[in-house]
Amino acid sequence: MTPRWRAYLIGMLAIAVFIAALYVPVLRRRLHQAKDVPTVSEEEARRELTQTSPTNPNGPVTKARLFWSAGARDGSLMPVSIDLPLAMDPAPRGKQVLNTLLAGPIDAELRTLPPDAVLLAFYMLPDGTAIADFSEAMATSTPSGIQSEQMAVDSIAKTLEANVPQVKWLKILIHGQEVDTLAGHLDLTRTFMVNAKATPMPQTSAPIQKSQGTPSDVSNPLAPPLKGAPKAAGGIAVPGTAKPAGASQKLTPAATPGKLAPPAKNP
Amino acid sequence: MTLAFAAIAPISLASFIAHAKQAPAAPTSVQPTSVPSPAPTPAQNAAASQAAQPAAQAQRQSSSIVILDPAHGGTDLGARGASGIRESDLNLYFAAQVKIALEQNGFQVIQTRQGNENPSFDDRSAMANAQRGAVFVSLHVGSTGLPGTARVYVMSDLASATDSNGLIPWDRAQAPFLPLSRRFGDMVQGFLAQRFKGSPLNSQAAAVRQLRTTAAPAIAVEIASVAVDDRNVLDRMAPGIADAIARGCSGFRPLYVVAAVNPGDRP
Prior knowledge:
The complex is a heterodimer of chains A (about 270) and B (about 270).
Chain A: H1 3-36, H2 42-50, E1 62-69, E2 77-84, H3 90-103, E3 119-124, E4 129-134, H4 137-141, H5 146-163, E5 169-174, E6 192-193, H6 247-250
Parallel strand pairs in A: 4-5
Antiparallel strand pairs in A: 1-2, 3-4, 5-6
Helix pairs in contact in A: 3-5
Chain B: H1 2-8, H2 13-20, E1 27-29, H3 46-62, E2 65-70, H4 87-104, E3 108-111, H5 121-129, E4 135-141, E5 150-155, H6 178-195, E6 204-206, H7 209-212, E7 218-223, H8 231-235, H9 238-252, E8 257-258
Parallel strand pairs in B: 2-3, 2-4, 4-7, 5-6
Antiparallel strand pairs in B: 1-8, 5-7
Helix pairs in contact in B: 4-9, 6-9
């Protein structure tokens, strides 16, 4: 290397050192800012991930009616109107209102759902059945009791009825699974009537999101079987398959009760 | 549906026979009517009347049976209060008081649990379903509600169904008994409202899991609540609760008429 090239190299290194010296305060400032970022709990992070951002943030704001406790300690609910940019599609719309319901009212005493519960998924079936899949906290943190559990389910059902006209039935899952009861009393193996006069839903919008353990059992003891669907094991209507002739006649309720069939045994 | 159950869940012969014995009594009327006894013909003289006597006696006895269900137990503590009150313990205490009051009114009482065990929902229902003409009373203490009040719940709407063999699905056993349960529930709730101010005047509908599989007039009584600071508040309610339930059962007894036992109907 000639002395001339050596001088060039030393000059370039000096320039690099100078630039680095200028950048050090900037790096130090960024490091300081990173320290100030608040740490989020696992549950909060999960909620952020599962929370639906408004589908139409610039869309028209709608007055959503949410049902929280009336505070009378008799299990009654009270509608509260809140301005929300609700989506038009029933599934994201349902998810938005339920997430707002979970977020709770200003007065924590009027809560109907546990604060740590998370809506993991919400989707619609073509027959108008809404599937709401909650985290385990919904079952473990809801106060045990017929009244308190009934109030929790009522608040979900009434909120959906008021804001998502396509929902006819409600099925509640816990972490993707059907469970026996909500917190020891209320039967979650069944579906709940939301709105008997629900408007039919276009076939294209369901399902939009599915969680793990998508229910194969969408038993709906009160709902008529899906059109053209046969009864599968347990009398469950299976969408998308052909209905054998005469199947509905065999399951027509008799006028008087007869003998009782044995309970289903868990394997 | 029953056949489908059998297909997916193999049932041993012993368990099938055991469950076959759990056939419900067919309610014939909610009006106070007497069951017509077969008129003895000359051919059916003393022997026939002797045969009819046990049948009538069986009917008299069975219509006086109350299945008393102290809910929860074992590892399932039910609702828990901040002061350490546990629902499972309280239910057992209330059951003991109610049992005494019922027996004083001439009822035979069968408890679904005597101590700190936890039979399954189906096992508890099976105790009622094995009796002819029994009524079922499930005792609860809730987490919420106006302290010092009591509410009666009956199963909410449940579509009845029978399969091609005339068997009622186990998970809809309550369906044929809903009108009777409502009548029974209103009666007990009326007496509770007299004793405990602030209690509703009529029973309320809720999807209580325990009631769904019970083939008998069935109610759940929920006392408010474990949230009280002093357990004595609840203990002092026990005599009133016991008296109201006993009076309700006595009032309902003449309204619940079951079909006469026909020898050969059952295994």
